[in-house]
Write a structure and sequence with these properties.
Number of strands: 8
Largest sheet: 8 strands, mixed
Shape: globular
Order of helices and strands: EEHEEEHEEEHHH
Number of domains: 2
CATH class of the largest domain: Alpha Beta
Radius of gyration: 17 Å
CATH superfamily of the largest domain: MM3350-like
Strand order of the largest sheet: 5-4-3-6-7-1-2-8
Length: 191
């Protein structure tokens, strides 16, 4: 069976305006590898557990024995096994504490373009929330605080973040530069 390219739109749920990325990946990679591509594309740090929900399947890390019974090992399941139709949707959950839920849609399935490198990010909007911000309520609070340098919590939040935070920031070139690391090194766990 020939390898195809999946164009996936990834949208972080419960945040408006939406934070999203459009990526292209080969369908012969595993869900474990897709997890790492999403981490880079979205701007996460790969500091927490994850789970995909595709149809009736849960896919995650099972080797530590902590995954619920029936969870498929993400290092063993290739995308081509479950993602075979355009417009199908599935979910990606990152960080079981902050509970970052992402909806992923298979926008297109196309043949490999030999003039391109994969994985690639081809679009996106807005900055990913910082890790450990206490989910979307904490993120919404952060955005409100950072709008006003006179807010009583501004300096404390800035110190906790370690740098300014711009919720509108997204750099496609920078994201693809980080994805190139995977291509060059074959290191699916770059963080």
């Amino acid at each position: 069976m020939p390898t195809n390219i999946l164009q996936l739109e990834i949208t972080l749920k419960r945040i408006k305006p939406p934070i999203w990325r459009m990526i292209e990946v080969k369908d012969d990679i595993t869900f474990y590898e897709l997890h790492h591509v999403i981490q880079i594309a979205m701007g996460w740090w790969n500091a927490h557990l994850f789970e995909f929900r595709v149809g009736g399947y849960k896919i995650g890390i099972t080797e530590d024995g902590m995954a619920p019974e029936g969870t498929l090992e993400s290092k063993e399941v290739k995308l081509s096994r479950l993602l075979d139709a355009e417009k199908m949707k599935f979910e990606y959950l990152y960080d079981f504490g902050d509970n970052w839920e992402h909806e992923i849609s298979v926008e297109k399935i196309t043949p490999v373009n030999k003039n391109k490198t994969y994985p690639a990010c081809i679009g996106g909007k807005r900055n990913c929330p910082p890790e450990d911000i206490m989910g979307f309520p904490g993120y919404n609070n952060l955005v409100e605080i950072m709008k006003d340098k006179n807010h009583p919590e501004y300096l404390g939040m800035l110190e906790w973040l370690g740098e300014e935070y711009d919720p509108e920031y997204f750099d496609l070139k920078e994201t693809n530069g980080e994805l190139q690391f995977i291509i060059k090194t074959k290191n699916w766990n770059p963080n």
